Amino acid sequence: MTHALITGGAGFIGSHLAERLLKDGYQVTVIDDLSTGQFKNIAPLEGRPDFRYAIEDIRNSTVMDRLVSECDIIYHLAAAVGVQKIITEPINTIEVNIGGTEVVLKTARRYRKKVLIASTSEVYGKGVSFPFEEDNDCLMGPTSRNRWAYATSKAIDEFLALAYHREIGLPVVIFRLFNTVGPRQSGQYGMVVPRFVQWAMKGEPIRVYGDGQQSRCFGNVLDVIDAIQRLATMSDGVGEVFNIGSSEEISILQLAERIIERTDSPSEIKLIPYAEAYEPGFEDFRRRVPSTEKIKRATGWTPTTSLDTTIDQMIAYYKEHEING
After folding, report:
1. Among 46, 71, 53, CA closest to 9
2. CA-based, 20 to 30 A from 52: which of 66, 76, 132, 313?
3. Secondary structure string (H, E, C) spanning the chain
4. What does the mean pLDDT of the chain come to?
5. pLDDT single digits (tens) 214-248
6. Residues 6+ away with beta carbon under 8 Å from 57
């Protein structure tokens, strides 16, 4: 039985991955400090003989040494997440992302374990060539703006992981996630789809930042988990970077309208200037569109779940769990 270690495994994506791996016959260990993850995401798995967890910071090298020594493969998802948290807690963002990845890689090197590392579309920065391809140049904003701390820290994670692969042959695979959404996702840290759905369900105004013409591609979490697992199990691909995301592009204003329609909500849309929502000088991406040709060629993966279906899944989840936020 393959034993998988998931860092950040009590998070939105990590908990779905844990369920998928258990279904596939893996033994699963989760480590999460619950800074953004929630224990309720993995509570249904507690007590299973093939599942265990540790509530701890991945920068605790003693704990990580024990967990990595006992596993066969590492899925490194732990990171500081959410635009609001990134802007208000830049020290934590940088230290968790870079320091945590450093511990994971050093420990994986000690025991020669394969590592899949979750990165982000944010590493493309102010990219202007669409769709984003894995070898595109990355254009970051100035260091004087906290907005870019997350993107830069994740880029360092990628550099470090690829250095471990090239210098010592550590088997690493990097995947860049583009706006993953679905049931269990919290809007607490600025994630747009859960916030819009929850506001619409309560009939509250849907607050759209800027002019609403910025566009994104929202991928269903189960599609994303399938892509990650295909990367984990394919025979080659180590030392490579892959985009994972949907090709269904939508503006944030259109997203708000779509969610109002699917919730049959009386909510109105309210445009909020960035200056009121974030720190002065905040910069946003106008478009974020992935090319998924590379992962399709490597694994045959393509996204299959429509945005409407994903929104409906989230509405059903929030109705069942009566989530406010």
Report:
1. 53
2. 313
3. CCEEEEECCCCHHHHHHHHHHHHCCCEEEEEECCCCCCHHHCHHHCCCCCEEEEECCCCCHHHHHHHHHHCCEEEECCCCCCHHHHHHCHHHHHHHHHHHHHHHHHHHHHHCCEEEEEEEHHHHECCCCCCECCCCCCECCCCCCHHHHHHHHHHHHHHHHHHHHHHHCCCEEEEEECCEECCCCCCCCCCHHHHHHHHHHCCCCEEEECCCCCEEECEEHHHHHHHHHHHHHCCCCCCEEEEECCCCEEEHHHHHHHHHHHHCCCCCEEEECHHHHCCCCCCCCCCCCECCHHHHHHHCCCCCCCHHHHHHHHHHHHHHHCCCC
4. 94
5. 999 999 999 999 999 999 999 899 999 999 999 99
6. 33, 100
Q: What are phi and psi of 209, to 5 degrees?
A: -85, 145
pLDDT at 68 > cutoff 80: yes
| Cα–Cα distance list, 31 to 40, 52, 72, 145 (Å) | 14, 9, 15, 31
User: CB 213: neighbour CB atoms within 10 A?
Assistant: 12
Among 136-150, 198-212, 219-233, where is mean pLDDT lowest?
A: 136-150
> CA Rg, the chain, in Å?
19
In sequence order, the 6+-apart residues with CB closer than 8 A to the CB of 161 are 101, 105, 115, 117, 170, 172, 174
Cα separation, 318 vs 127, whole angstroms: 34
**Per CATH, the architecture of 3-180+221-246+290-304 is what?**
3-Layer(aba) Sandwich (3.40)
Q: How many residues does the chain have?
A: 325
**Within its chain, how far is the Cα of 312 from the centroid?**
20
Q: How far apart are CA 55 and CA 51, in angstroms?
A: 14
- Does residue 323 surpass a pLDDT of 60? no
61 CB-near residues (< 8 Å, 6+ apart): 103, 106, 107
Token pair for 93: 């963002």
Q: Which residues are catalytic?
A: 150
